[in-house]
Give the backbone structure.
Amino acid sequence: TRVSRSLAKMEKDEIHGVSPLKVAKIIEKCLLKKRPPLKAVVGLNYQFLVFLKRFLPTKVINAILYSMYGK
């Protein structure tokens, strides 16, 4: 089913994703700031998606996410 495929893709992304060391460095960087951000994005794909979200309608962002995880 589509849900199974989506979960398998997400699991694969988690297993082969950004290294824990890189995530820890981002967390450390945020903690050292006087005013840390509410959110921090790790990983080039997701940073790009967050960047695009500033300019594109929600419908387009949802279509991109669907193409990543819904097929």
Summary: Residues 27 and 33 are 10 Å apart (CA to CA). The mean pLDDT is 89. DSSP finds four helices and no strands in the chain. The helical segments are 2-15, 20-31, 44-53, 58-69.
